[in-house]
Amino acid sequence: MIGFAVAGGVFVAALLGFLAFIGSEIEASTVEQVAQQGVIAGPTPTIEPTEPAPPEEPPLPPLPEETEDNNGLAKVRARMTALHQAGCDTVLEPPTRREAPIGATITLSKSSRHCVVVMGATDMPGTEIHLVVTDPLATPLETPDWSQHFEWRFCPSIDGDHRMEIEHRGRGPYHMGAYDCPKRKFDALAPLAEAPTSE
C-alpha cells in the first residue's frame, strides 16, 4: 500500500508538471500570434496632409494726416451755418467727430410743424457713411445711398419715436450734425438742399 501511494504520488506530480509545461507552451504560442497580428504593437499612425498657409494680405496704406478739411468738420460746420442763416434755429446735434456707427432715437410730432435736417461728411480715403431711419411703425424711410457726404431732410407724418443710425465703413473719421427747422423755413431750403460736395 505504501509503495502504491508513493508511485501514485509520483504519477500525479509528473502529470501536473506536464500540464504546466503544456500550458506555458500554449500561452507563449498565443502571445506570439497576437504579436504577429499587431495587437500588442498597436495600430500604425496615419499622417494627415497639411494644407499650405494662406498668403498674408499686404498691409493697408496709412491714412493721411487728419485735418478739418478731410475729416468732414469744415463741410458740416459750413452747412449748419448756412442752415442757421436760412432760419433753422435749434441745433439737435452740433458738428461731432465720429469713428464708428452711431444711433439715436428722436421723438417727432407732425403737429409741431418742425422738421429735421441730418448731415454727415468725410473725405478720408476708403471711408463712407450711410443714414438709416425707421419711423414709429418700424418702416424704413428713404435715405441717401452710401457716400462720403449726405444730407437728409424730413418732416414727420406720424407722431412718435424715430430711430436714426449712421452706418460707417472704412478706417477714417467723419463728422455729423443735425438741425431742427420750423416747417415754414424748411420749405424755403430748396436752394440749400444739396449735400456738401468736395471741391
Poorly predicted residue ranges: 1-16, 192-199
The first-to-last residue Cα distance is: 133 Å
Radius of gyration: 43 Å
Q: Do you know the CATH architecture of the largest domain? A: Sandwich
Largest sheet: 4 strands, antiparallel
Specify the number of helices. Answer: 3
**Overall pLDDT score:** 78
Give the quaternary arrangement of the chains. Answer: single chain
- Strand element count: 7
Helix content: 25-40%
Percentage of residues in DSSP E strands = 25-35%
General shape? elongated
How many separate domains?
2
- For the biggest β-sheet, the strand order reads 1-7-3-5
**CATH top level assignment of the largest domain:** Mainly Beta
Structural class call reads alpha+beta
CATH fold group of the largest domain: Jelly Rolls
Order of H and E elements: HHEEEEEEEH
Structure summary:
The protein is α+β, with helices and mostly antiparallel strands.
What does this structure look like?
This protein is of the alpha+beta class and 199 residues long. The protein has two domains: 1-38; 73-192, Jelly Rolls. 27% of the residues lie in helices and 28% in strands. The chain has helices spanning 2-36, 73-86, 183-186, and strands at residues 90-98, 102-108, 114-121, 128-134, 149-154, 160-169, 174-182. The strands form two sheets. A four-stranded antiparallel beta sheet has the order 1-7-3-5. The protein has a three-stranded antiparallel beta sheet with strand order 2-6-4, with no helix packed on it. The radius of gyration is 43 Å and the shape is elongated.
